[in-house]
Amino acid sequence: MTSDASLDRLARAVRAVQDSLPSTTVTDEAAARAAEALEQAAAVLQPFRVSVTPSTEWSVLGMNRGVRSLSPVLVDGDWGEMRMQAQVTFTDFFHGANGAAHGGTIPLLFDEIFGRMSTSDGVLRRAASLTVDFRSVTLLNVEHTIEAHLDRTEGRKSWLVGTLRHGDVVTAEASSLWITLRPGAL
């Protein structure tokens, strides 16, 4: 079993590469060397891959242990049953234009948060919808606060809501509908 420290180091290395790509003027030689190193890293990891084919047993629920390098890193997270608060910084990897986070990365962040929250009470759910309203520019390389919680439940439907803030400025709000799965559902 891999230690959390080893996975964290690997994730930091991947993120360092990702953050370097949008703002580099790399030479052909340096690009070739970096590509070779990444190809070697992929070959080292290949034998340890776990299948993520559809399954009704949900035994792989915690398999990735939070290592998703497409989402920004959450820091100082306070997680509870169907609620959370954390700090997040959109690094250069998430650059859209003019020093702002790419608009697609913000729904990705909310989906990641809501997905983790949706099973925090031990109930299996799937997303049915996600709506994100952009309120202000989400700047790169500054700390934001993300908060989310369960808004309400009606039968098998659960609505999760959240906000992304920079100081007192709300940069985005999101709401999402999650459906409790019936036994044996994917």
Beta-strand portion reads: 25-35%
Largest sheet: 6 strands, antiparallel
CATH third-level topology of the largest domain: Thiol Ester Dehydrase, Chain A
- Could you tell me how far the N terminus lies from the C terminus, measured between alpha carbons in angstroms? 26 Å
User: Based on CA inertia axes, which overall geometry fits?
Assistant: globular
Q: Largest sheet, order of strands side by side?
A: 1-2-6-7-8-5
The second-level CATH architecture of the largest domain is Roll
Poorly predicted spans: 59-66
Average pLDDT for all residues = 87
Radius of gyration, taken over Cα atoms and rounded to an integer in Å: 18 Å
The sequence of SSEs as H and E is HHEEEEHEEEE
**Number of structurally distinct domains:** 2
Q: Percentage of helical residues?
A: 25-40%
What would you call the structural class? alpha+beta
Q: Kindly state the number of beta strands.
A: 8
Q: Which superfamily, in CATH terms, is the homologous superfamily of the largest domain?
A: Hotdog Thioesterase
CATH class of the largest domain: Alpha Beta
Number of helices: 3
